[in-house]
Design brief:
Chain lengths: 353, 358
């Protein structure tokens, strides 16, 4: 168990910068998720922590000690690769035993620990099989057991659930979370599934193009995003983006002018969460062009003077039909500077518009 | 839904039974055709070998093909009978029983018909070491002959040492080429392929001079090094392909688990490329075992003779008087290759060409 610190850590390959200089502290026993689109440097960050890649610049510290030059095998890190990377020629038992072969552990204790790790992820029935004879979910558990068996001070999970079906994924999410709490091991989970990140982790790190965009709780990222990127990346269906100008306490888009609060000025983007659109209230006129029923809720596609908007409304049966004309109100909104993409703190439309 | 769509294109109801019969008879015809082509195609290869075997075990001085014809007279009907069985019996268990019966009957017939002709006389070269000298005097092309076992030992030595070197070097080189980025890697790979395109014959004179200069002329070591050098480019390429097919994750995972790079290589990577190493080993062994051109040009002493030279000079000197014995030597020469194929074919046929990609 340890506290992880990155100081100005970056990774470049020739002209390609996978990770820009980054500062980050992860507390002892914390569960952190790294969330971001494909190619944003999540795996690279993980591999630097594991010691597979050496950072181009900066310092990685485990409990205050700089570990840049420490080899992967000496870092006592457990890692689950996205591909599981089980050793195909070994049985499940030998796979789980493998990390213990390099520690001076008596044979019977190694066997005992392997069996215990297998029991923890409930694969004790499968110990004599080869990885090729396991289902995807079973392979993933074996990979997890192998990562846990050496009692690592840091557990790295690179998209460990990406190959599972939806229901198994749900189960594994809570299992991993419970396991992490029980063992208290510092854990970093890489994913590009925002629900996975927000449901499992204490803190979520949102990355884009090799930079950390924002670090915070799921609530922070959703309701108080620092940037338009975070606002757009988090949330499904995505936030509605309305381009316009902020001038003299008003938001102007096309023929519409709405009263604005806060210090916004110049070209801005208004972000409105789909559930912040109230159907049948207010005085923005809209027409329903399409409805996607999702069981518990429905997504409405609306044409409004502000452009195409998507609204989310709870309820098993849609209240409006395609083609219906109705008023819409914006219950809450966020304002972003169009050039920098940063959120203008405190700026929002006057409530109830 | 589907029947309606079908009805709209064909006015009457189709006769499913007739369609099924048609498909079945077409499948049978295709199979029969395939088997016929395969059998006819392999006859030109099989018959000479069959002839070699029958003569080796039954021939006496003077040309006689009686046993070959007798054997064929039994084997061909047996083959036709087998095809008939395969076409007519559908139940796999009954088919297997019928096949066993047929095989037993064929063997019994062979024993009865060719049995009286069989003898081991042609194999006396195995226990009479100066057989050639006795048959021909010491005046033939080959002069005084070494024992066949000397030649056998030399061939085995060349083949095994050569195989070991090729497997070891191509494995390490293939790993390096697959895993490490270095300047000139692409042109090195291209060069490897071009090297393989040269016919070895074009190199005979430079190689002769080279071995002379380094003092390896007329040594087995010299031959081994030359054959290794010629075998390596392709072997390296094959091994690189096998390493390419193994994901990087496995090594990385091993190193995070506590293995050094070397341990990861031996414990995790090598087991994944076993089949490739086996393939390279088999082909290298056969190449060394069959080597003729370079042993002919680079070796002079009789004590350095290999099986190929022994067979060559024997056929030069003894053919006229005892070609049945030459056949026996030929069979003796191909036996190790056949044994090797028999042992390794199970693994080699699992090999996918997918393992070989740039
Ligand atoms: N060995 C390498 N050489 C050169 N560029 C690399 C290398 N590995 C990764 N990159 C580049 O670095 C960037 C980040 O890659 P990384 O694997 O960290 O992305 P990721 O966030 O894990 O993406 P994904 O979600 O698709 O797994 C990418 O643009 C990638 O092309
Ligand atoms: Mg990745």
């Amino acid at each position: 168990m340890s506290r992880i610190e990155l100081r100005q850590v970056s990774k470049r390959w020739g002209d390609v910068t996978a990770v820009e200089p980054t500062d980050l502290v992860i507390e002892d026993g914390e569960f952190v998720a790294i969330l971001g689109p494909s190619g944003c440097g999540k795996s690279t960050t993980l591999f630097m922590l594991a010691g597979i890649y050496v950072p181009s610049e900066g310092e990685i510290r485990f409990d205050k000690a700089v570990v840049n030059e420490v080899e992967a095998r000496d870092r006592n890190v457990g890692i689950v690769f996205q591909s599981y990377a089980l050793y195909p020629h070994m049985t499940v038992r030998d796979n789980i035993l493998f990390p213990l072969r390099f520690k001076k552990i008596p044979q019977h204790e190694a066997q005992f620990r392997a069996t215990a790790a297998a029991a923890l992820v409930r694969v004790e029935e499968l110990l004599e099989r080869k990885p090729g004879q396991l289902s995807g979910g079973q392979q993933q558990r074996v990979a997890l057991a192998r990562a846990l068996v050496k009692e690592p001070q840091l557990l790295l999970l690179d998209e460990p659930l990406s190959n599972l079906d939806a229901s198994l994924r749900m189960t594994m999410r809570s299992e991993i979370r419970a396991l992490q709490r029980k063992l208290g091991v510092t854990t970093i989970l890489v994913t590009h599934d925002q629900i996975e990140a927000t449901t499992m982790a204490d803190r979520v790190i949102c990355m884009s193009k090799g930079r950390i965009e924002q670090i915070g709780s799921a609530d922070d990222l959703y309701h108080r995003p620092d940037s338009l990127f975070v606002a757009s990346f988090i949330g499904s269906p995505p936030i509605n983006r309305i381009e316009g100008r902020a001038e003299g306490g008003r938001f102007l888009a096309g023929t519409i002018a709405l009263p604005l609060r806060g210090a916004a000025a110049g070209d801005v983007v208004l972000g409105v969460r789909p559930e912040a659109l109230r159907l049948g209230e207010g005085d923005l006129s809209a027409m329903v062009t399409d409805i996607e029923p999702h069981g518990r809720e429905a997504i409405y596609h609306l044409t409004t003077p502000l452009g195409e908007l998507r609204a989310l409304e709870a309820g098993a049966t849609p209240r409006f039909a395609v083609g219906a004309r109705l008023p819409v109100a914006i219950a809450s909104s966020l304002v972003f500077d169009r050039i920098s993409g940063r959120r203008v703190a405190g700026a929002t439309l006057e409530a109830g518009i | 839904m589907e029947t309606r769509a079908f009805a709209s294109t064909s006015p009457q109801r189709p006769d499913w039974q007739a369609l099924a019969d048609k498909a079945r008879s077409r499948r049978r015809a295709t199979n029969a055709f395939l088997y016929t082509v395969l059998i006819l195609g392999s006859l030109p290869i099989v018959v000479p070998y069959l002839w070699l075997f029958t003569v080796a075990f039954s021939g006496r001085a003077g040309a006689s093909t009686t046993v070959l014809w007798l054997t064929l007279a039994i084997l061909m009907p047996a083959l036709l009978g087998w095809l008939g069985l395969r076409a007519s019996i559908e139940d796999p268990r009954r088919l297997r029983h019928a096949e066993w019966l047929l095989a037993a009957a064929t063997l019994a017939a062979l024993a009865a018909v060719t049995g009286p002709h069989l003898h081991a006389d042609n194999w006396r070269f195995l226990w009479i070491s100066d057989i050639a000298n006795r048959l021909k005097g010491e005046t033939g092309t080959g002069g005084r002959y070494p024992s066949v076992w000397t030649a056998f030992g030399n061939s085995l030595f060349i083949a095994l040492v050569q195989m070991t070197l090729v497997v070891a070097v191509s494995t390490f080189a293939g790993y390096y080429l697959s895993r490490f980025e270095f300047r000139g890697r692409a042109s090195y790979l291209r060069g490897l392929l071009i090297l393989h395109a040269f016919p070895a014959m074009t190199l005979i004179i430079p190689i002769f001079l080279l071995t002379y200069w380094v003092g390896l002329l007329d040594t087995l070591t010299g031959v081994i090094l030359v054959v290794v050098a010629l075998e390596l480019p392709f072997a390296i390429f094959v091994m690189k392909g096998f390493f390419d097919a193994v994901p990087w994750d496995i090594e990385m995972s091993g190193m995070v688990d506590g293995a050094s790079r070397r341990q990861a290589f031996f414990m995790l990577l090598l087991p994944q490329v076993k089949v490739g190493m086996l393939a390279v080993a088999v082909f290298a062994f056969l190449r060394g075992w069959e080597e003729y051109v370079f042993v002919r040009t680079l070796l002079f002493q009789k004590s350095n003779w290999t099986m190929s030279l022994y067979l060559f000079f024997m056929s030069e000197d003894v053919m006229g008087t005892d070609y049945a014995m030459v056949s026996a030597i030929g069979v003796f020469y191909v036996l190790p290759s056949i044994v090797l194929y028999a042992l390794s074919q199970k693994y080699l046929t699992q090999m996918t060409i997918g393992g070989i990609k740039g």
